[in-house]
Each structure stands twice: as C-alpha cells, then as structure tokens.
Amino acid sequence: MSNIELIPIANQKPVTSLKFFGNLLFAGIGNCVRVYLWRKNKQIDECQVFEINRVHGIEIISDTRVIAWGGTSYGFLDIVDLDGTNFKLKCEQEHHFTDWIVSMKFWGHTIYLLSAHNEVCELDEDLEILKYHHCDEKSILYSGKLYITDDVRLAAAGTVLNGIVVWNLDTEQVIGVFKSHKGVIFDVSWSSNGKKIVSCSDDRSICVVDVASNQIDAIGWGHTSRVWRAQFLGDDSKTIISTGEDCTARVWELSPNERVLACRRTLNAHQGRNVWSLSINAEEHVAATGGGDGKVMLWDFDTDLKNLVFDMSLFDSRVRSCSVNAKGECMVSTVEGKLHIYYPEDSSSTFSGQWIECKKSLNRMPLTKCFRNRFFAISPVGDGVIYSDGILISEITVPKGVVDFHVICNDMIVVCGQDYNAIYDCTNSTLKYLDPEYTGITAACLYDGYLILGTKRGDLYLTNDSSSSSNIRAFDSKSNVITSITPLGQVIVATSQSGEHGVFAIPSLRRLCKDKSRRKGTIDGTNMEGNSIISSSTNVYERGNNLLFYGFQNESLVLWHSKYNYELESIECGGSHRSYDVCFNDRKMFFFYVRSPKLVLSSVSVFSPKFCSSMLSSGTHGREIRCLEVSPINPEIIALGSEDTTITIGKIVDGYVAAECVLKNGHISAVQCLHWTADGRFLLTGGGKGELIAWEVTTIDNRVYANLMGSTPIALDRDISELRVMAFSIFMDLVVVAYSDSSFRIWSMDIDLESNSTNINWKLLCKQKYMECCLLNIDFVQAWGRLWLLISSTDGHLVIYRIKKRGESKINALMELRFKIHKSGIRDAKYIFNVTDNEVWYYTSGDDNALFATKLWFNEETKHIIPETVFKDENAHTSSLTSLTIDTSHNWLITAGSDQKVRFWDMYTGSLLGSFITDVCDTGAITKVANKLVIAGVGLAIYEIKSDDSVQKSSN
Amino acid sequence: MGKSSKDKRDKYYRKAKEEGYRARSAYKLLQLNEEFKFLDGITNVVDLCAAPGSWSQVLSKCAPKDSKIVSVDLQPISPIDNVITIQADITHPNTVTKILDHFDGVKADIVISDGAPDVTGLHDLDEYLQAQLVYSALQLATAVLKTGGTFVAKIFRGRDIDLMYAQLGRLFADVTCAKPRSSRGSSLESFIVCRNYTPRPGWDPIELINQRMSTTAYFANVLGPMNISERVVAPFASCGDLSAYDSDASYPDISGSYKPLAPTQTPISPAYQNALQMKRDGLIKRY
C-alpha cells in the first residue's frame, strides 16, 4: 500500500449527545466531541474520541475531565486550560465494552455503566472493572439512566416491549415496572431528587411517574411522531423538555390536579426528521438541542415578554389604526380622527407610561404608519400629520381619496389614492405623480436613488429620476400581494402574503431566488403575511447581517431566521390581525395589535441576554445527502442534494460547508442527482415525481443565489406517479435523463437570456425504454467520433446506445451492447476516455460488494464496441459500494460503501492503495476537491488527503 | 397518501394482496427459496418473529405436504393452514422446549427469521438491535437445528456485518449473503443464508440462552476471540429472476377504474394508535 493519509477537517453530522457544564457545552457529533463556550457562541475545540462509533453520551467527571461513550466505546477527555482563556480537548485511549452502552454515571470515585442487556458495571477511575450488577428483568434496552447517591443506587431501564424497569443496584431487586407507554421507551430521566422519572416513547407520549408511590403523575400528548428525549428542567420536577422525530422540542408543565402535561411551548429550529439530543442547564434555565441536521440550538426559558393591554374605552371612539416605533411608543388613530400617542417611561420597560391625545386631530378614519421614530397619519380626505418625540413636525395635505400610504424615508411618502399614486415630499410639501401603471401599491422602499414599489398583483416596479425603470412579476401564487420590500446590500428582498420571499437585483430587478419563507413541513396551515427585517446581530456562521422574517402562523406571530430556518420568537395573539404593527430596535421587538375590545403592546427581546446567538452550529441537511458536486468555475462552491427534498449551495470555508442558500421550493420529493452545467451558470437537479429542475446560480456581493428556472415538462405524459429521476448527463445543450421506469429521455435545453429574466425551453428529442428495471447511471460519452450513451441499472448490466441525430428535432438511440458486470444493482459508475489508447474505461461499484473496471474499445472493422473486464474485486467492500469517484491526477479510484469504509485503488491496476473508516453513515456521494475528499450521507465530512507525492511536492 | 396509492405504486404490495399474502415480504422468501431451494425435502421448519405471518404462509404453500411448521412471535398470529403458531419470547429458554415438543423431539431442518426492530434512524443503534435479533434467533436456531440444518435471517448490511459473517462461519459450513429482487436496492436489508449447521464443541445454545452474556462475548469465550483479519465477506447472491418485478423500478399506474384491494390482514395495533385517535379527535394539534 502506498502512503495515503486521510485527515478529518470537517464534521457536519447528526448531534447525538449534548452536555452542559457551567459555561461549557459539550456536543457529541459523529465520532468527535466538540466543546463550546455557549454564552459567547465560540467553538473551543473538537477532538475525535472513537475510531468509528458515534458519541451517544457525555458525563462530567471533574472540572477538567469528562467521559464520552457511544456504541460499545467509551473514553476520557481532558480539558486543558492553556492560558486561562484558551482551552483544548485532549482525548485518551478508546476503550471497548462487550455490549452496547446505554448510559454512564460518575459518583464518588466510581464510574457506572448501564448496558443494553440491563446490566450495570462499576469501573474505577482507571477504568478497571470492579463489579457487575444484574436484575431479573433481562430485556434489550433502548434507554436508561442511573440515579446514584451515597444512600441509594438505582437504575431506570427503558425496554423494547416491557415498559420501564426500575431496579436497585445493591439489592438487585426490581422496584417497579411501569407500563404506561405502549411501545419502545426511547428515553427515561430521573428528577434531581430521584423520586420521579420522566419517559418518552414510540407511542408519542411523555409520562411522569412517581417511583415511590408507583403511580403515574401525568401523561403528555402533543408530539406528532416518536419522542426521543425527555428531561426535567429544574428541581421542582414541574417542567419538562422533550424532543422528537417531529423535529420539535417541547416545553411541558405539570398541572397536578389534572394529571396531564400541558404543552406550553413548541420550539421549531431543526430540519429534516429528528432532534436527537437535549441537555439542560438548570441554573441558567437554558436548554440545548441537537438535531439530525447537525444544528446545535440554545433555548432560553426565561422570557422578558411583556404584554401591555389597553382598553379601547380609553379612546373617544373605535380604533382605526395602530403603529409602534423602535422606542416602544405607540400611535393610535380613532374612527373619529383623533390621534393618541403612548409614551413609555423608559424604553426598557413599557409597563408604565401614559397616553396623550394629540392636539391636532384629522378627518375620520386616518391611517397611521411609523418610520424610524416618526409617526405619520393621513386621513382618506388627505389631511395628515407627522409626529416625532411628541412634537408635531409637519402637516400634510394631499389630494383626497387616500386609500393607503407608505413611508419611504424620513420625509417622503408614497400616497396611494383611489385614482392617483404620488410621492409626497414633506420638506417642501410637493407632490409628484407616479406613472398611472403603478396601481394597487402595497409596499414601497427607496434605495440608492431608486423607488421600488410592490403591488397587490405581485408585481415589482423600479424607477428613478432619470426615467430608467424596470419591472417584474415577482410572485405568481394565488395570494401574491407584496407585503414588504427590504434593501439588503445590492439586492432587495420582497415578501408576499402567501409566505414566499424573493431576492431581486438592483436595478434590473432580475430575480435571484424565490423561496417559501419557511420550509415545507414545518408549517401547518400556511397563512403567512411575511415581512422581513434585517437584524443588527451577527453570528460566526454568517458574514454580514441576519435576515429575519415575521408573520402570522395559526394563533401566533412568529419571528424566524430565513436562512437557518429557526424560530426566534412566537407570540400568541389569537391569529392574524388586520390592524397591527411591528417594530424592532437592536434588542427588542415591539408588536402592537388590536384584539378587540383591547389593544395589546407586546415587547420581547429578540435575542436572549444569556448568549450571543441561538445557533451554535448550522449543520446541513436533516436527512441523507444523496448527491453533491463542486461548481466547475469555483471550487469553493458545492451543491448538495438531499432526501429531505432540498438542495444546499454552500461554500467550503474553514473546513465546513456554510450554506449560502437552501433551495426549498423546487422538488417535492427526495433529490437523487445533480450536476452543474460546464459554465457553472446553471445547476440541474433530479428527483422524485419525474422532476428535473434547472436553477440559475448568481453571485452578487459575494453571496450566492439560485433561482428556479422550471422543470422538464415530464408531468404532461406521466402515467407513473412514482417516477423518479435516477441520473442524468449533460453534453453541450443536450440533457439525457434516466428514470426509474427503465426509460430515458433526451432533451435539448435552449437558454433564452433576456435583460431581467432567463428562460429555458426544453425540447424532447428522444424517449426510449431499456427494459423493466430501474436505471441507476447514465452518461453521454463522446468517443470514436460519435456520441454514445452508457447506462447501468439494477440488473447489473452496462448498456451502450449509439446516438444518431435525425434532423433538428429528433434523436435516435440504438442499442449497441449489453454486457453483464455485476450480480446486482450498479450503484455508481464513472468513466474516463483514454486518449492514447482510444479506449473508454468504465468503472462500476455494485450492491454485490464488487468493484469492476471495464475497458471498451471500438473495432473499426466490425464497427462495434468490444467490452473487456480489466480488473475486478468481488469483495471490494464488505457491503454495498454506494459511490465512487476518479482522481486522474493521482490515478486514484476512490470508493465508499455502506460498511463505512473509504478505499483508494489504482485506477489502472485495481490494487488497493488505502482503506479508511468514516463515521458518515449511509454514504451517498463522494467527491474530491483539490486535496480534499468530501463524503456525504447522513451528514458530511471533509478530509484532507495526504499522500507520498503531496508530501514530496510540499518538501520541494 | 392513502392505501390505494401504495396499491398503485408498489407492485409487490399489490401482488401480495392479490395472492392473499399478509405482507409483501412473502416474495423475499419465495425468491430466496427459488435460489437456494432450502425448503426442498424438509420435514420440520421454524419461523421466528413470524407475525403477521407472511413467511409462514409461504412455508404453508411451499414446504412439503407432510412437514411440520412452527411459527413463533411475541405478537399473536392469525391462524394459517398447516402452521402451528406459538406466542412466545424467542429469548426465553422454555420456547426451545415448546418448539421441540411439536416436532416430537426431532430437530428442525431449517429455521428462518424475518424479524427487524423498529428502526430509529440512528444507523449504529439500528444495526446493533438488528444484530441482537439475529443473535437471539441464532441462539434458538442452534438449539433446535439438526446437524446440517439451515438458518436464514434478515440482516442489515452495515459496518460490522463482516464480524457476524465470521461468527456464523464458525457454526455453518456455508454462509451466503442474499438479496432478493423484491428487497429494495437502496435499503441495507439483506438475508443471511447459513447452510450445513456444524455444532461446535463448547457452543451450548441452552447455556447461552440461560445466561446473560452477549452473544458476541459468548462467541469470543467459547470459540476464541475474533481477529479483525478473520472478519470476512460472505459471497453475495442476487435472488429472483431478472424478469421478476424490480422493487426499485416504477411501473405504470393502474388505471382509474381500479379498486384497491382490502389488506389481507389489518396490522396489529401500532404503538402510536392512541396518538392517532387523539389527533383525529382534535385533542392533539400540530402546533
């Protein structure tokens, strides 16, 4: 074997364990332990503790020592204080137990280990085994926790079928078997006094049991899928946090009289399926959750949410309109035209303050708006005022018939009348009429000298003084009313009532991306009146500002992070409101709304004062990554496609993939394959429902955007509801797509470039069917002066078609060759064209554990292709070879299998050059970028490849 | 998606209902037997983790007429012609006796198991639990199998499967990993076909069932520790004719006039049944 080394540099995998310890938070991610200073949003260090096993649990031993376990492995980690502010993790030797470790506990000088066969093992501090404890209940455990004090040593074991078994380590007697759940017990935790346990299960419920009295205290229902974790929040055993397969974390409160757990809060932050891990910092009232998506989130259970309720009888008549500014001051207009302003005594506390009626009143039914700290009010008849700090700054007079208005800067207003639209300049009381084309204006903003308007039809208009203008239909959906326009660097973000948002270039208004504001599946009964704000807070994963959205969802106003898709705040307000206003300052959100017969002013800190950022780690996809490819024009940019139906375009920075954009609005089922066009301008993605989607990828301001260009029109002739795109290949303007019904189609992709939009016209040139079996790989290959199709499928055969063009609109594919290679499905295939020998080398990796290299050459006399097996290894891996990649610069063939091995082979001789273990499960795709190897599956890992020649190069 | 759409999508699912099988997994056993012919000439057969009973149905059809079929599961199994069903725990020592009683003390020719745990999505845990189930089935199998007998079980072809191949190789002369065409290529599921059972001195299945040591530890204790180099790859066999339906392929939808067939047997009550009912009653809201 030659000298190849794989050095892990990035780790974005499911978070399988979390543990708070004072200011530190330990996270088990893959086979590594990562440690954060959670308050400062700072990752201190990461250390690989096990060869392959995942870290499923972490227990504190001392101020400088923790023990981690997972699978059958366990081992110590030391926290080395370098200089008082910098720390490092130092990992000791990995130890193996004879069974799966369910949990560990440290007490006194002893380490206790609970195994999956319901056995407790005592170890001393040098990890010498001292003693075993058993009980009569021999069952496989999914979960379990030990409660150890000087007085009592108990185990609570969560079994597969037999409920929770609580037993005493000293007497080895079973104290109780609690069968309140139906199904597997996925977690069980002790209260701090050891009197109660909380458990969660397959049956989707949470249960609190009083161990001493052998009674069920309460059961909680609310998770919509299996529940993975449940723990008590504090010492009183009254509050419980749970996490589950429904991607939520939930806060429960025990109501002692009703014997039920009431779900008080639902925390939405993770994507995909599972929130695997949970840790609670009881002193700080903070919890951390870690998901299958690799995200680590912090939650503050102390909220400074204040609801100030005013009775409408304070005012002379019914409230017409209400506004709030960044100081928490509010303006109310009444039906009769009176204006009232509320002044809180200081901006930090809105609880005391007073209402003052403005001296100046207007005609009936005035509307109010706020811009920065100024309040604007205009009545339908056209009289209006501007107030700032309680002072009447100016009076407004505009033509009558005012329907709505939008403040675009401190002293300019877009007035929308019944039969006119105009800009009113408050400094000189002038009115400039706008093009009558701009009707139904619902949002406006002024940016860099451009006026940008949004309409109720979903159109955006841009205009400036020098008569340049552009427009675009921004949203096409049913409720496409544009609700906000926000500048963001050299682009604008517009939101629609249907919950979509789009990013548009200035001044062309070219659409750069459009997306649902929240990912499908995390929202129930979408009725988003989306708005966007740019917060001033930054975090390490995001250069520049965070883009936050707010809108109504069911009974609440919710505020969430657009890119990382987590909820920052949810304020119960009874549903969406006709009359409301929202304003932010650097810390707080103010939400002022009419909830007849009351007015409510809610104020809440958007970001917790306890920590810098809610998100400690951004993670990647919540389900398996199926495909990936690096941009041909920028090796830093990588596209990932996932089982979770989304695509991420990310940048590889500092050893992890930072999401630039997550494409949620394209595929409706799993993404199977993706490729860039040669110029890097378009990304094509294939998935379920026969969809092949093209995305236009643009970089502006060093940010990457991708805009949905549409799908091949396969839906029209589809009689197979389960049709999946399995693979495709691009050659010039031709795209050949392989489907799961054994058919393939060749399309031509005509790109039509216009000033502010690009269109792709798909033309079907060829449709053919191989057999009945599912196609798995397809490639256009140009060789021997012709174009060929190389196809491999679940039947283990390579099939070659000769491509013949018949005029402009038709292509014929003639079967040239069918050659059996594998016993079972060919999971991946790659080829090279060897110019010197005029040969194609086709490499295949199979479900049958085998790796084959097949040489193809063209017999000029017979005019046929001759296949020949050059080398094979029928036991290349111990299970399916899921993917392979070729590195021609080193003559390497690199394979990955479901045995979690990565192997390097000489691509010409087939000799094994190196074999490595990866902790990425279900490996779906691998690729090599420069000297890095990216492996994706359940999460992803990036390794630096060091080999003899790279060592030589660096020494030269 | 309702039942009817799965009916339309999944060829094997529909075929199972048409042919009266309780689950599509029946075809996995049929295709395995097509390749290995392990049901030819047998007299005593045991089906472990048998509920809802589709493999037992195949045994009932394909095993020789006078053969004795015993099916074991913790869950009740609805009656099947010519099949003796036992509701029992396969890890309990008494179960061995119960089975052998039905065979009048004669040992079994073949033991099969299609058992799988509820998968969580944590691959390492799922593979561990599947392995434990195979070991439990193996313990029982070696307690009831005759010398030269066959053991067939579902496995997850994950990262530690080579260790299991090596362990099984110490008790069976011939170990093959088989993948029926009716098992989806994208899943880790495969079947281990272990032929020619060769009892080893020191390997005492009854002792193993009675004590609490893990099977891996028992293997190490009795047969010596397993070296990494001893981990082997079992030969791979693809089962089922290429003309059989491909479980990864999509087939044209059945036209609109098609009426979905009722399931042969409704599923046993799932753990989340209560939660579903409460959701239907409006007691659980999504948010």
UniProtKB/TrEMBL annotation, chain A:
Cellular compartments per GO CC: cytoplasm
Q: Which residues form the signal peptide?
A: none
Q: Where do the WD repeats lie?
A: 178-219, 220-262, 268-303, 664-699, 874-915
Q: Where in the cell is it found?
A: Cytoplasm
Q: Which Pfam families match?
A: WD40
Which SUPFAM superfamilies does UniProt cross-reference here? Soluble quinoprotein glucose dehydrogenase, WD40 repeat-like
**An example of a Gene Ontology BP annotation on this entry?**
tRNA methylation
Entry keyword set: Cytoplasm, Repeat, tRNA processing, WD repeat
The entry sums up its family as follows: Belongs to the WD repeat WDR6 family.
UniProt name for this protein: Rtt10 protein
Gene source species? Starmerella bacillaris (Yeast)
Lineage of the source organism?
Answer: Eukaryota, Fungi, Dikarya, Ascomycota, Saccharomycotina
From TrEMBL, chain B:
Active site per database record: 154
Signal peptide (residue range): none
User: Broadest EC class?
Assistant: transferase
- Tell me one GO molecular function of this protein: tRNA (guanosine(34)-2'-O)-methyltransferase activity
Q: Which residues form the Ribosomal RNA methyltransferase FtsJ domain?
A: 21-197
Residues that coordinate or bind S-adenosyl-L-methionine: 53, 55, 73, 89, 114
In short, the EC number is 2.1.1.205
Q: Which UniProt keywords apply?
A: Cytoplasm, Methyltransferase, rRNA processing, S-adenosyl-L-methionine, Transferase, tRNA processing
PANTHER family recorded? RIBOSOMAL RNA METHYLTRANSFERASE, TRNA (CYTIDINE(32)_GUANOSINE(34)-2'-O)-METHYLTRANSFERASE-RELATED
Q: What is the official name of this protein in its record? A: Putative tRNA (cytidine(32)/guanosine(34)-2'-O)-methyltransferase
Please tell me the species this chain comes from: Starmerella bacillaris
At the highest ranks, the source species' classification is: Eukaryota, Fungi, Dikarya, Ascomycota, Saccharomycotina
